[in-house]
Amino acid sequence: MKRAYSVQDLAKMRTVAAVSLGKELDDAIGEVELSGTWFIYGPPKNGKTSMAMTLAKALARHKKVAYDSVEEGIRKTVRMAIERQNMHEVGRSFYLLDREFYDELFFRLKHNRKYGVVFIDSVQFMGLNFSDYKKMKLAFPDKLFVFISHVKGNAPDGHAAMRIMQDSDVIFSIRGFKAFVTSRFGGNGEYTISEEMAEKFYIK
Q: What phi, psi does 41 have (nearest 5°)?
């Protein structure tokens, strides 16, 4: 039989687990727990990758981050995004994985426990289904998974992506280099990824 938790137990867990990602992200998201699922989605060239790298850098100050670049691998565009965020500042707390699909990634996480945060870019390119997602989440309950998704119209593209989003603790809807955030941790729900690019987008 599993343990039952008192209100006092839960209060202690919250105090220990909640972390700060910096004022601007905290304002948008709230103070977060580094487990569960986050979800980033939006149209191309609107700032999804930049938002993902911003989060990866902030999270790497607390846990080791693995960014599985399933779609683009280690192409120049990915390397440029890493350079723009000055990821060298978090040293060996950030690792880029070159197109590891589901079985390879699962094997890595099972045999190398150092990664506390895992980005998967993207849901569609990995060919992930909801059953695989549940298996991974239940197998590694202490990890935070961050999924990046394409869109079809204004919604995540595909049944699996929709189901993963619905299960997520934090959702980032990206448009015009702004993230419109829905979070179970509170926050004001908006984060500007790039002031310069957002100004160009919204003043057209």
A: -145, 155
Please check whether residue 59 is in contact with residue 117, taking contact to mean a CB–CB distance below 8 angstroms.
Answer: yes
Counting every residue written for the chain, the total comes to: 204
> What is the structure's pLDDT at 16?
54
Q: Which value, in Å, is the radius of gyration of the alpha carbons in the chain?
A: 17
123-161 per-position pLDDT tens digit: 999 999 999 999 999 999 999 999 999 999 999 999 999
Q: Is the pTM of this model over 0.90?
A: yes
pLDDT digits (tens, 9 = 90+) for 31-59: 898 999 999 999 999 999 999 999 999 99
Q: How far is CA 128 from CA 68, 91, 174, in A?
A: 13, 30, 21
Mean pLDDT, the chain, whole residue set: 92
The C-alpha atoms of residue 121 and residue 32 are separated, in whole angstroms, by 21
Domains annotated on the chain, with CATH: 29-202 (3.40.50.300)
Q: Which two tokens stand for residue 3?
A: 């343990």
Distance CA 81, CA 38 (A): 20
